[in-house]
Amino acid sequence: MFSKYCFILPMQVRDYECDIEGIVNNANYLHYLEHTRHQFILGKGISFSKLHEEGIDMVVARINISYKTPLRSEDEFMSCLNFRKEGIRYVFEQDIFRLPDNKLAARAEVHIVSIVNGKLTDCPELFKMLID
What we know:
By secondary structure, the chain is α+β, with helices and mostly antiparallel strands. The protein is built from 3 helices and 6 strands.
């Protein structure tokens, strides 16, 4: 099931991430998604601080999330991603699955753009780093 993703990160819900209903607050899914993207990028040997020093910043332009099955305190889950390039955008398709039943908890499409020396532009060297 998880073999269709280029990156998978196991995670676990922490108590403080839940709201009064006992489920993960919707805003925390943004943190899960971001942490997964960051771990994927770090795994490629890409340093955000080094990129920034070189005048390259990767910023979120848009996020669309569909919430499917709620996560609860101590739930373990898999945060999975794929990505593609569309013009100057990097589109990350991200899914979060609750374990052990593998139910889809959330599905997101995250659009990232690169700002090079203060200007929105394509960054072919960044794309090369991501696919290597």
